[in-house]
Amino acid sequence: MNFTPPYLNPNTTGDVVLKGVNYASSGSGILNSTGVVLGAPISMDEQINNFAKTRQYISSRIGEPAAQQLLTQALYLVAIGANDLFSAEASTSHDTYLDKLISKFKSQLTALYDLDARKIIVTNGPMVGCTPFERDLHQSGDACVDFLNDIAKSYNIKLKSLLLELTTNLAGSKFVYVDAYALLENILQNYTSYGFENEKFACCQVVGENGGLVPCGSFSRVCPDRSKYVFWDPFHPTDSANEIMAKIILDGDLNYVSPMNVRQLANS
């Protein structure tokens, strides 16, 4: 599969850059403090700074007018916020924390716009309370952790409102809201119809009722057929689950992606 090259790959140079770059960093978040316990993730602020360097490189390579034309027609996928929601549990006031999160995200998305991003796809907060990690951490057994999902729902209401505000106020912008929460919920509720056999247990696991207490690593046990599992590890869906969601994001209806799907955005 031809994946978009990562920004920090030394080979991400020349004409390759003109076809897209991946700035993602495992464990990162909207807030700079998110994920620091996991190591040194590249925060959203740093990712935008890296994109600014790419923008400068493209301009120097093909000229400013052509760079601006390329960048305003490009698609930008911003899939971030889940790790911030995992961290929300420790906050003394969930509402205050979410307001801080949305305020920070607003400035970041505006910064992207100022760098000539116009077609921006943003995923909302997923069902963090249904991950094997949270199920095992809270010993919820077969049930999801409802209060964590409620935090995600509150964040999503605020995020959807923010994207409508930005589309209205930033001339020429098109922000597309991807309902990752509803996408995963649909799969979990109808997992057998999608060909899955297990919707709770992590395929790559070490310990825990749902295999969720220890991250996937070289010492982990891996299930015989990962395509039969919704979750790959304590936190992330499998490729099979992601493929289902990606197809809906590309061509789905307003139940999952609004005000248009990604194919419509690309053609707009």
Q: How many runs of DSSP E, i.e. beta strands?
A: 8
Principal-axis shape: globular
**Overall pLDDT metric:** 96
Helix amount, in percent? 40-55%
Number of helices: 9
Largest sheet strand order: 1-2-3-8
| Largest sheet: number of strands, sense, barrel closure | 4 strands, mixed
Unreliable stretches (pLDDT < 50, length at least 5) are: none
List the secondary-structure elements in sequence, H or E.
HHEHHEHHEHEEEEHEH
What class would the helix/strand composition place it in? Answer: alpha/beta
**Rg:** 19 Å
Question: Beta-strand percentage?
Answer: 5-15%
Can you offer a commentary on this structure?
There is one protein chain. This protein has 268 residues and is of the alpha/beta class. The chain is 43% helix and 10% strand. It has helices at residues 44-62, 64-73, 82-88, 94-114, 132-137, 146-169, 180-189, 239-251, 262-267; strands at 75-78, 119-123, 174-178, 198-202, 204-205, 221-222, 229-231, 257-258. α3 (82-88) crosses α6 and α4 (94-114) runs parallel beside α6.
